Amino acid sequence: QVQLVESGGGLVQAGGSLRLSCAASGRTFSTYAMGWFRQAPGKERDFVAAISWSGSSAFYADSVKGRFTISRDNAKNTVSLQMNSLKPEDTAVYYCAGRIGLTSGTVYLRQEQYENWGQGTQVTVSS
Predict the structure, then answer these.
(1) Alpha-carbon distance 104 to 32, whole Å?
(2) CA distance linking residue 81 with residue 124, whole number of Å
(3) Residue 27 reports pLDDT greater than 90
(4) Do residues 96 and 19 touch, judged by C-beta distance below 8 A?
């Protein structure tokens, strides 16, 4: 298993950018498919983006497609979420999640498919 720690959250104005990072412990990170989820106040936790363990496949929620980019560096045991053109509706706690990937190209979109979670980082977008 890996332990996950998110960082990079904060307060930003609408239209601005933030880059979230998720640092993973453990030597098996390169076999883990990773995902980002978010939970706004009073709402359920929703899928944002996912990436396969090789980085060859990525998938995005429609609400962030074209604005957010997920990437990973297996040498540094990190996965990142670059968030551009932020909107107030992007305000949420963002969570990093991981699980062993079935193949180099497999991505996982549902939170129940993930076994490891970070503690979350707050992103607040002001209008």
Answers:
(1) 9
(2) 15
(3) no
(4) no
**Stretch 55-65: mean pLDDT:** 98
Backbone angles phi, psi at 17, to 5 degrees: -130, 155
Contacts by residues 65-74 (CB-CB < 8 Å, ≥ 24 positions apart): 70/34, 70/36, 72/34, 74/29, 74/30
Summarised one tens digit per residue, pLDDT across range 85-116 is 999 999 999 999 999 999 999 999 999 999 99
Q: Residue 1's pLDDT band (boundaries 50, 70, 90)?
A: confident
- Specify which residues 68 forms β-bridges with: 83
**Residue 98 identity:** G
DSSP characters for 98-114? Answer: EEE-SSTT----SGGG-
Helix, strand, or coil (residue 30): helix
pLDDT of amino acid 26? 80
